[in-house]
Write the structure tokens for this entry.
Amino acid sequence: MLEIRFHGRGGQGAVVASELLAQAAFLDGKMPQSFPFFGVERRGAPVTAFARIDDRPIRVRTSVTEPDVVVVLDPGLLATTPVSEGLRPGGLLLVNTRTAAEALAGPVGIRRATVDATRIALARGLGTSMMPIVNTAVLGALSRASGAVSPEALDRAIAAFVPARPDANRDAARDGYLQVRAAPAREGPSAAPAHPRPPPVPIPEGPIAFLSSESTPTAAWRTFTPVIHRERCTRCNFCWKFCPDDAIELGADGFPRLRAAFCKGCGICAAECPPKTIEMVAEA
Amino acid sequence: MAKLTIPAEEWMFSGHAACPGCGPALAMRLLLKGLGPRTIVSVPACCWTVIGTPFPTTALRVGVLDNAIEATGASISGLRAAADALGLADVTVVGFAGDGGTADIGLQALSGMLERRTDAIYAMYDNEAYMNTGVQRSGATPWGAWTTTTPVGPAARGKPEPKKDVMGIVLAHRPVYAATLSPSFPEDFDRKVELAKGLRGPRFLHIFAPCPPGWRFDSAETIALGRLATETGVFPLYEVLDGRLRITRKVSTLRPVSDYLAKQGRFQHLTPEEIARIEAQVRTDWERLLAREREDGPAPA
């Protein structure tokens, strides 16, 4: 049995990716299973989904804790989520990132693969520029890097089950298949986990909520960052006024400044800026 | 440097867990600017529970009571009584609930609070469906809108029932003040909040709160969409003070509702006939509003 765990953010299509993978495996004549981890239904929030593929009926119904393959749809999660936790020796870590597979931090004994699915999705016009839908490009890469499903079955699953723009999604999957880059496992003694779990928060006596939400920055949520061009700024403060995250502060000189730790990249400031001095620039 | 047209102080922390471009998050930020630090907010189960208070954090610099979805009205009656018993006369008690928790599940508690003449503000942020749980229709979802429980297909055309008139229900209780607010008009928003804060007795704020993932539009368009809702007459801005209605954002010629509908995925399936039906309803409601304003006349000097 092959066990796969997807890590993404709400809106990227991680849950649909796991369903499409299962549909493709079924078309390959396998017995698949797919289900998400139920959390908060919120765009940008970390999302986990699971898939299993076997030649026999699958009886186990629990979350995948010791995956053979981990798929990460958002590279920002590598810094905040223990994505490679439980990966089996000889397993595969596939990440949507511009980074070369050799440069990817991964546990010892785990094969690594990368694909720039964000670029593929944007080129294929999938999702919005603020939130590209990368799932089908990643599935193409997964098909090649893991052999979990055949590219033909993936083509057919996308045609049958993707309601919006199936052709562009199929092309994105083919792009992902062709562009995925793989690197062998790192060697050497097992060291600290590549993506450690954050330490638990100690709970003191007193009020239930004892930390400010500013202890949980949201910079990693965004795909685009506003860049404020001061030379054309009229200091009208519209960007400050309309920010749902209070991520823009006004200096003593009246010019707006980005509080980058808390910007989610929604793009409201750029859209509302009367002289259009704010530009949304893709994150590196 | 341009003069600030709304208070500079922030009483909502950054780092909260709202989606990018969240209308309800901006609604809370603007509401607290007007109310200031001597405020207690009661939040039922809704998006804002998850946005504001995932353990062990809080996104508000003021006191928060998390409560059950049906209980907002009752909880602010209790908070007011407790504040009075403690001699905290300068504290503003606020209920901040979604449309599902107000128009549907919390309706009797809201009615009770209004009828008891509780000295508190009840704010409903209206994102027109149960968004926190993944876009299920509520009583406040408009006619024709797609949600996960009012699907669109060969046998279904989105929500077959009209949006519940929550302002009408509230006004039937004769509150001292009731108003509609939109974060797209921050100055009008702030003026109403500060006016409400200065009054005593039951006050109600109906806040328009666009939801990019639930309504299916780009997160950068939240403000533009709110402006369109008011300019098309879909969400007119008005207030009722001492029973007298006044439109606070005059619109001489309404824009066609299609300008508003076309920007949202939840209305993409509508036919020209269905859009005309919405247009006709919006115009009828707008004429009624104008007639009521004329009938009420200007406030006595």
Remarks:
- Chain A touches chain B through 52 residues (CB under 8 Å).
- The longest strand of chain A covers residues 46-54.
